[in-house]
């Protein structure tokens, strides 16, 4: 409502819950921040004020873009005393629950609606999301295509729990805004890859609704014992695991280019285990989709 009244665009982190739902038809909610903020266009469109609501967004481009900014105010709003500010760019801190603050602010500001600034950002979002969708559609079956598969197949009552490492970043980069609701949950904390199966099981149990965990193979193996509770609690849990035999995120480290370093052994840390072993462990049904259609069918 605040964005609709002020015309200020929202760069919505996937875990914020703002990317999905009927409000996206009325308010300028953007999902391509990870791509836009690393472009020249974003350098030419620096705002006077950035209001950061809640935890630090996932996007690395956002962090670098803030660091590159020499002017303007950065207001961090948080009620948990975190004020995440890894780049030391925050100029103002507001101790308030972000949703409550937005509600009060929306009630007090006028109803200006979209401005040229709003139009510029929403047009950039339109172009970027079209380009992203085209790239995803023409790519091999990889992480972006998995996100597209989840987007297409998950019902609005499903809870999507997303793991740290690349899955949350994949969602950030490739999940578009849509008026269909989607409940996304993440636990960024210190970005741990531990306890994710247990978290998803707890979400499924508490909500009583079908739950999907989107995870990497290391995070799944880290909390394999969490699966023991799935059958006992009788929850409806589907695990979508991108199996790249280790930590795919480490292939983005600059050291990957150092020829004398055995990057694969030291950073990627392949384990050689087949995630299919969960089949025997908990009696789960295992599917090995190798294209978007078979992923959608399996889901
Ligand atoms: C508990 C814990 N141990 C280690 C790490 C360091 N770490 C960050 S990402 C990562 C790799 C995760 O691999 P995977 O879950 O397969 O996801 P991918 O990188 O392939 O997307 C590791 C080990 C961490 N974040 N948390």
From TrEMBL:
Domain Menaquinone biosynthesis protein MenD middle: 2-161
Single GO MF annotation: catalytic activity
Gene3D superfamilies: 3.40.50.970, TPP-binding domain (3.40.50.1220)
One Pfam family recorded for the sequence: TPP_enzyme_M_2
CDD domains: TPP_SHCHC_synthase
Domain Thiamine pyrophosphate enzyme TPP-binding: 196-249
InterPro entries hit by this protein: MenD_middle, THDP-binding, TPP_enzyme_TPP-bd
Name by which UniProt lists this protein: Thiamine pyrophosphate enzyme TPP-binding domain-containing protein
């Amino acid at each position: 409502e605040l964005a609709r009244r002020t015309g200020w665009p929202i760069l919505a982190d996937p875990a914020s819950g703002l990317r999905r739902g009927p409000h996206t038809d009325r308010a300028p909610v953007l999902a391509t921040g990870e791509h836009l903020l690393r472009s020249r266009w974003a350098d030419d469109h620096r705002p006077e004020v950035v209001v950061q609501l809640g935890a630090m967004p996932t996007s690395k481009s956002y962090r670098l873009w803030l660091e590159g900014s020499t002017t303007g105010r950065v207001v961090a709003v948080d009620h948990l005393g975190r004020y995440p500010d890894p780049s030391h760019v925050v100029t103002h801190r507001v101790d308030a629950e972000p949703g409550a603050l937005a509600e009060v602010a929306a009630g007090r500001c006028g109803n200006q609606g979209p401005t040229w600034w709003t139009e510029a950002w929403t047009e950039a979002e339109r172009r970027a999301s079209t380009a992203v969708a085209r790239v995803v559609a023409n790519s091999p079956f990889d992480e972006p295509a998995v996100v597209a598969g989840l987007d297409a197949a998950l019902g609005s009552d499903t809870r999507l729990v997303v793991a740290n490492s690349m899955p949350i970043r994949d969602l950030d980069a490739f999940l578009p805004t849509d008026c269909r609701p989607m409940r996304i949950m993440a636990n960024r904390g210190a970005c741990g890859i531990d306890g994710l199966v247990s978290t998803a099981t707890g979400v499924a149990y508490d909500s009583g609704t079908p739950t999907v965990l989107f995870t990497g193979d290391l995070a799944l193996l880290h909390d394999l014992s969490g699966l023991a509770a799935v059958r006992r609690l009788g929850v409806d849990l589907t695990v979508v695991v991108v199996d790249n035999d280790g930590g795919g995120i480490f292939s983005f480290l600059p050291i990957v280019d150092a020829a004398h370093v055995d990057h694969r052994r030291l950073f990627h840390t392949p384990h050689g285990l087949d995630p299919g072993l969960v089949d025997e462990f908990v009696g789960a049904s295992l599917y090995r989709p190798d294209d978007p259609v078979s992923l959608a069918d399996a889901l």
